[in-house]
Amino acid sequence: MQLHHDFAQKLPHLVRPTEGEEQPHPQLLILNEELATQLGLDPDWLRSSEGIEFLTGRAGGHAMAYSGFQFGAFNPQMGDGRAMLLGEVEKDGQLWDLHAKGTGLTPFSRPGSDGRGTLSSMLREYLVSEAMYALGVPTTRALAVLSTGQPIQRGHVQPAGIVVRVAASHIRVGTFHLAAQTDYTRQLADYAIARHYPGADYQHFFAQVMDTQIRTVSQWMRLGFIHGVMNTDNTTISGETIDYGPCAFMESYSPSTVFSSIDTQGRYAFGNQPSILGWNLARLAESFLPLFDLDMNKAMDFAQESINGFADHFEAQRKADMAAALNTSPDLISSYSTAMQLNGPDITLAHRALADAAAGHPAPARELLPEGDFLEEYLASSPDPARVDSAMPRVIPRNLAVESALSAAERGDIGPYQELLHAVTHPWEPNPSFESPDPNGLEGYLTYCGT
Q1: Sequence-ordered strand ranges (E) for 235-367
Q2: Of 80, 239, 333, 370, which residue is least crowded by CB atoms under 10 Å?
């Protein structure tokens, strides 16, 4: 394997050398063979003792530095406190980060941290990121999950684990916050442009970041996904979804839905995600100001105009995405949103019912959406049944199914997890075991990040 260290070599002030801690009994639990092969990695080597040493970070790498607005408060110095960039692999002229999380203390670890993560949180990240990929959402992907043989104390004593993820890069909005403090904004921007948006000038670069992030979050919301921690350090320049900590999928439709245990004020509730993305991009624009124009007044005008147009841009994308999925006119999507809020159905079942309605079987949709005019307007628009069917998944990572599979894995039984993983990575295949919501609802359900 030819491993590059391109980010570390070109931006050495944004990394610190580190290596993973020695693990008592590291074992490779899950390996994404298809992804490994796509990247030119040898699955057999990754399973070997040398490969496991590499995946756990024992061969060394770099902790990445960044800042971030966390729940609205600025943290000027953050960085990978329990993770490391192992390096990059090149495939078809593009670099792909290999990034391991849960490898132990780094130079950016906070006081009192152990640099580790629970095995269940690492398995959650693997499962949800691969589900999102299967659903067509831009995302980091998961290469492997390893158990370490290390017990760690969280709410209770749990086994520790490591997840190795793959991304077009791990450059975050928060990376630019740090660069702006240290006068490296232009150098970082030039690197990010060359890697993600070749040929763009700085204003076009910002516009493209906005476009890609809007498309990503719009796709989240079509599926009912709630990120849980949309801090600026969890918002990527590439547009990939990153950091599947206290994330969850909404079942009964409600814009105020929150599952994250740390989001006590509902800042990152389902319906708040567009405005939070706009807020994050405004913070990015502030970091970019010196690049937009040498005349600061002109730079401010461009930034303000871009942010002022965000809400309309997002709403247009959301309507276009939902209209494409439903194979109907964007003009009907406001009626659709009203119907969802009036009726509060399970979002995934409602979408499948609309696919059935398009195919001439409207009874399930009438039962789920009895209030409002949307359904009759929708049927009158004559949607193509095949197109709607191909856009609406049958299976998502339903929260209690995820928790059940993770609990079994924590006890040493990986079978239920493997079964669920297959289901969520084949989301259009009928699978009655994983299509139904929890009959008792999700009131009181919380998700945790595993730190």
Answers
A1: 248-249
A2: 370
